[in-house]
Amino acid sequence: MITRAFLAIFLFLLIGLLGFFAISLQNDDMQPIKTQEGKPLILDRELYTIEGMKVDKESLFSGKIILNVYASYCLPCVIEHPFLMEIADSKNVKIVGLSHKDQIVETKKYLEKYGNPYDFSILDLDGSLSLKLGVIGPPETFLIINGEIVAHRIGVIDIDIWNDRFEKYF
Amino acid sequence: MGTSILWFSAFLCVLIFSFSLQRKSHNLAKNLIYANLGTLFIGALYLGYQFLSDNFSFVYIFQNSNVLLPTFYKVSAFWAAHEGSFFLMIILLSSCAVINNIAMKESRYLSLSNSVIAFILFFYLIFLALTSNPFMIFEAAPLNGSDLNPLLQDPLLVIHPPMLFAGYVFYAITFSFVIAGMFTDFDKELFSIIKIWAGISWFTLSLGILLGSMWAYYELGWGGYWFWDPVENVALMPWLAGTAFTHSLIFSKNKVLLSWMVFLGILTFLLSILGSFIVRSGILNSVHSFASDPSRGVFLLSLFALFSLVSLGAFFFRSNFLHSGWPKFMSKNYLLVLNNIILMTILTIVFLGTLYPIYYEVIYSEKFSVGPKYFSELITPAVFALIILFTLEQFPKILSMDKLKASLILIAATAIIFIINYFNMGLLLSGIFLATLILKFILDLLNNESVRLHKLFGHLAVVLLTFSVLLNHEFSKNIDFKIKPNDKVEFMGTSLIFKSVDVVPNKNFDSVVGTFEVEDKGRNFNIISEKRVYKVGSVITSETGIAPYITKDYLLVLGDRYKDGSWSVRYSIKYGIMMIWMSSCLLLLSILYGTIRRYDY
Amino acid sequence: MIDLKNTFRFLLIFSFLIQADTLYEDIDEDELERLEYLADNIRCPKCSYGNISSSNAPISKDLKKEIASLINEGYSDQEIFDLMQYRYGDYILLDTNIEDNKSIFLIPLMILVISILLVTTYTIRKSK
């Protein structure tokens, strides 16, 4: 009978659909936006620190570097800051800050208040440098080894994220 | 105490289910149904009381309320989030069962419907009690709540969700009667019951969708009213199936393709459950994501699996008892079947577009988007196909011609539509159809032919809606520019003057208010756009200024301030928005009238 | 009376430090249409809903500015989409490509055609 044939096909498709849903539920919650992991570091212009000094760009393309994007107006950045201070103390790695669309005066006040874990902070007044780099918004943390982004965290970084994604490179 | 109410109610449902299936205990079942509603009502009052008395020891109340929240919103917070909204649906479902039992005399349909409803209620209650209990209590009671999501503190968004939930619940009732008929038979009495419930469901769901769209336009303020976001689509799918269902009642009444009607009744119900799963399980990222929780997702999927397999399985076994006569070629019934096929195609498009990202993610482990273009480009020609069908149906002389000629005309008309659609002349086309329908109406009136008003106005509303949507899409434009106070800008024949910008403090936020003056061929008015900085959490929101008129809407969004004192501003002129709302309302009125009127189709 | 110092501090929140004079550097009307088209079809990376045209998020506005300068630099629409896709993944593209995703375009068409054929065949057959 036609109805039964139709229903049989429909039920078959339905079970397939249920299977897909079941598999999809198992997947960990993925971040919709791709991180920049696996991509080369892109710094398309001359860089200056918040002190006004020119940055030696070449130095950022060799060795192990942590690049942390922050801003004085970014509340979650305050939350992750103590962890960054800890990393600066305990790990032997260069930490560079990227001040994202922030006024120099405010950035300096922020660092005075919460501490400065960075070797220096790169100035990015209009956010275009961050944009080219693939930053969505602070806080974000990159681990760059020899010019390649090997780990990228979009959001607050803490000990769990660190152990999960960053620790293996140390 | 609240949790025990849920369990007790679930227990009652088991009793109702078994007693409704036995002839001798029908009355007992009915009384239990009343008792069940009473129980749930007590639970609702209990929860409501906790809201009004600021009892934050309840997790749900903590998450959705606050001491400072106005009383109106404390009440609406009941259904603000997942647990409460599900509880609301349960209460609604139970109330409808009671209404059925009061309004209808003893009939086997009623008992079967009662047992189906009890079946559904039972599993909903178990789900609620086990994974989404609104009565959960903290060990240590906090002093204040975290507040109702500011987006929800808005009248439109207070009423839009319950309207949608009511639509889903009513379709569950309709489903119960379809199942009842499936196990007995479909006579005139059952058809009139189904017709009324289907009409109520269709009206409510349509209204719910319309309200959501209006909220998106006026409150989110980005100038759009539909984004083909998963949560919007998930309400649209049962609506499409429901529309096909209502149309199928016309031919199935005459024993044509009865099993197809049954299938649609089941499908509409299943799609609304699927909707709950997609929205509440976190499987798709979207603007409405209720706080998602994996265990909840598993349970909801199981619910969907259970209901779909049981109902379709039962249908499979009963299908031999249902009459499935075929229509006559090129008859009115045949055109209605074509209508159903096209509606099902549109449903498939929405379904695929919404769920393809999930499929993609499972296969390729990467997130994927299906944007609005996919939907609008595929659905537009389908809508025109529907318009041809119902316009042609108005001219029976064409249909009663030689069948071969008639089908050739149909095919030719469709081909022309596709060609014109390709050349982007949809606006012109919809105008032509509009004129045709109106002229035919006038002709019929003059010839004293009977006119089915709900059908005429419903279809006219569809053409008007298509026209307005196309108008909006074709002619609306936006522009971003930089402007200082007292500057003037020209755009699309209108001029915009930035009059002033002021800082205005408020109770829980400060706002920067930009006042603009628009001049458009004699029309002169002010628009205000604000940026608000909320004192708690420093959240910054942008309030779009909207000046609505019948054919045009003027929108203004204040942006960022530059060092030199100028501001970035986004100015849009949207066409046809009011017309979209008006044609939707016309559609709603037609549905309402069609449901209430006492004659046959 | 509005406290002037607070007003100034408050307005500072919205102050945007930019050297350029116009919102989008020297872009003419044709290119403006391209910009609107591109912005309508790039998803806002930070929001769960919406394209960069409709979003008020800072990144959306920054991206729109970047697209404007890319247009000025002579990039084609496809190149701009490719750049966005490289940077943010497939998720960011809203203009669903027919070549890469044939199934979602073909399945509805097939269902339509097959259903009409089946129904018509049965209808005619049963009328005899």
The radius of gyration over CA of chain B amounts to 26 Å
Order of helices and strands of chain A: HEHEHEHEEH
Overall geometry of chain A comes to: elongated
Mean pLDDT level of chain B: 87
CATH architect. name of the largest domain in chain A: 3-Layer(aba) Sandwich
Low-confidence stretches of chain A: none
Strand order of the biggest β-sheet of chain B? 2-3-4-5-6
Number of strands of chain B: 9
> CATH homologous superfamily of the largest domain in chain A, by name?
Glutaredoxin
Q: Under the CATH scheme, which class of the largest domain in chain A? A: Alpha Beta
* Regions with little confidence, pLDDT below 50 for 5+ residues of chain B: none
**What string gives the helices and strands of chain B in order?**
HHHHHHHHHHHHHHHHHEEEEEEEEEH
Shape descriptor of chain B reads flat
Ends of chain A: how far apart?
Answer: 67 Å
Radius of gyration of chain A: 22 Å
Helix content of chain A: 25-40%
Fold topology:
The complex is a heterotrimer of chains A (170), B (601) and C (128).
Chain A: H1 2-26, E1 64-70, H2 75-90, E2 94-100, H3 104-114, E3 120-124, H4 128-133, E4 140-145, E5 148-154, H5 159-166
Parallel strand pairs in A: 1-2, 2-3
Antiparallel strand pairs in A: 1-4, 4-5
Chain B: H1 2-20, H2 26-52, H3 59-64, H4 71-76, H5 82-103, H6 108-131, H7 155-183, H8 188-220, H9 230-252, H10 258-280, H11 294-318, H12 332-364, H13 372-392, H14 396-399, H15 403-422, H16 426-446, H17 453-475, E1 477-483, E2 488-491, E3 494-505, E4 509-520, E5 523-534, E6 540-543, E7 545-548, E8 552-562, E9 567-575, H18 577-596
Antiparallel strand pairs in B: 1-9, 2-3, 3-4, 4-5, 5-6, 7-8, 8-9
Helix pairs in contact in B: 1-2, 1-6, 2-5, 5-6, 5-7, 6-7, 6-11, 7-8, 7-10, 8-9, 8-18, 9-10, 9-12, 10-11, 12-13, 13-15, 13-16, 13-17, 16-17, 17-18
Chain C: H1 4-13, E1 15-16, H2 29-40, H3 58-72, H4 77-88, H5 102-126
Helix pairs in contact in C: 2-3
Protein architecture, described:
The complex is a heterotrimer of chains A (170), B (601) and C (128). Chain A is of the alpha/beta class and 170 residues long. Chain A has 2 domains: 1-30; 57-169, Glutaredoxin. Chain A contains 5 helices and 5 strands. Chain B has 601 residues and is an alpha+beta fold. Chain B has helices spanning 2-20, 26-52, 59-64, 71-76, 82-103, 108-131, 155-183, 188-220, 230-252, 258-280, 294-318, 332-364, 372-392, 396-399, 403-422, 426-446, 453-475, 577-596, and strands at 477-483, 488-491, 494-505, 509-520, 523-534, 540-543, 545-548, 552-562, 567-575. Chain B has a 5-stranded antiparallel sheet with strand order 2-3-4-5-6, with no helix packed on it. In chain B, helix 5 crosses helix 7, helix 6 (108-131) packs across helix 7 (155-183) and helix 17 runs antiparallel to helix 18 (577-596). With 128 residues, chain C is mainly alpha-helical. The model of chain C is unreliable at 15-22 (pLDDT under 50). Chain C has 2 domains: 25-95, Helicase, Ruva Protein, domain 3 (Orthogonal Bundle); 97-128. Chain C is elongated. Classes of the chains: A alpha/beta (170), B alpha+beta (601), C mainly alpha (128). Chains B and C meet through helix 12, helix 13, strand 1, strand 3 and strand 8 of B and helix 1, strand 1 and helix 5 of C. Strand 8 of chain B pairs parallel with strand 1 (15-16) of chain C, so a sheet runs across the interface.
